[in-house]
Amino acid sequence: MTRDDDPLKSHDGEAIHEFAAGADDAGARLDKWLSERIESLTRTRLKALIEGGALAKDGAAFDDPSWKLRAGETIRLTVPAPEDPVPRAEAIPLDVVFEDDDLIVVNKRVGMVVHPAAGNWTGTLVNALLHHCGDTLSGVGGVARPGVVHRIDKDTSGLIVAAKNDKAHQGLAAAFSVHDIERIYLAIAVGAPRPGVGVIDAALARAKTDRKKMAVVNAETHFNPRRAVTHYKVVETYGRARAKLKGDALASLIECRLETGRTHQIRVHLSSIGHPLIGDPVYGRGPGLGGLKPGEPEADRAIAAIAKFRRQALHAAVLGFTHPVTGEQMRFERPPPGDFEALRMALAAL
Q1: Which domains, ranges and CATH numbers included, belong to the chain?
Q2: What residues form DSSP beta bridges with 214?
Q3: Degrees, nearest 5: CA angle 88-94-98
Q4: d(Cα 207, Cα 235) in Å, to the nearest integer?
Q5: What's this model's pTM, rounded to 2 decimal places?
Q6: Per-residue pLDDT tens for 199-257?
Q7: What DSSP assignment string belongs to 175-213?
Q8: Is 180 a catalytic residue?
Q9: Which of 153, 155, 201, 210 is flagged as catalytic?
C-alpha cells in the first residue's frame, strides 16, 4: 500500500497512489475511502479525479466515485502534476468572429488547446483570451478555466464561445446543460453511412482499457453511461467508381449536428458505425483508404493528401445560441481551414 506521504512518481510528475481493499473495507464508498487514505486530497477533489478518468480498479479505467468497494479490489489513482492555479495572459493572435461586453466567439485554429492542463500550460485559448480580454475575464467561471463553458479538441478547428462576466457565463452554461445550443460540425469520414441521414443515439463512457479514450457502452448495464446523440447527414461522397461494392463510397463529407456534447462524441459515434474520421489518431484505422491504387493521378493526389492530413478531419462550422444577456438570437458560421479543404478537394477529384 502506498502511503499518502510517499506516492509513486511518474516521469511527468504525476503522483500514483495504489491500495488494496481488505475485508473490513467492503461496502465503503470509494471516494470517501480514498479520502481517509490520502490526506492531501479532499473528497471533492477525489470525486472530480475519479469522474475525470484518473482511477483504475483492478487494472481497468473506472469513473464511479460512489462505488461500494469489494474485498480484494485493487485501486490505482493517478494524480496529475500540480497546475499553475492562475493561467498567464499571453499575446497569441485570435480569429475573433464576434465580441461584445458579455461574450466572445472565436474561430479556434488547429493545434490550440482550449484551457491549460498537464503538458499544455501555455499557448492555450485561455492564455490568449486573458491577454485579449484583460481583467474582464479574470475569475469568470473559476480561475483555472476563466470564461470557458465548452471546448473542442486540440486538433479540431472551429467556433467556440467564452463568457466575459458571470451573468453571461451562467446563462451560457445553462443553455449548454439543456442542449439549447446549435452546434454543427463538418467531418470527412471513411466510407459513407447508410442511410445517408440518421441519428446515432449511443451512450458513452471511459474506455475500460484506456482512461484517455471514450467508448460506446450499453446504457442499461454500464455503471455510469453518458447519453450521447448525434444527428448526421451525408453531404458529399467520394470515390464511388473505385469502391469495391457498387453504390459504396471510399469517403464522405458528413454534417453532424450535436444534440449532446460529450467528449470525442462525433469521433466515437462515427467510428462505432464503421466510418471513422480520416486522420483520427485515436479512433481511426490508420492512413489510406481501401480501393485507392497508386499510379493514377487522382488516386496519387488523394493518397498524398490523406498521408499529409495528420489530425481528425473535423471542423466546428456553426454555433448558434440565445445571447445570455440581451436575448438576441446569435448564429455564426465559418468554413473549414485550408488543410481540411485541400483534403476534401483531393477526394472530390476521385
Answers
A1: 8-79 (3.10.290.10), 96-177 (3.30.2350.10), 182-348 (3.30.2350.10)
A2: 206
A3: 115
A4: 30
A5: 0.78
A6: 999 999 988 888 789 999 998 888 788 999 999 999 999 998 887 776 789 999 999 99
A7: HHHTT-SEEEEEEEEES--SSSEEEEE--EEE-SS-TT-
A8: no
A9: 153
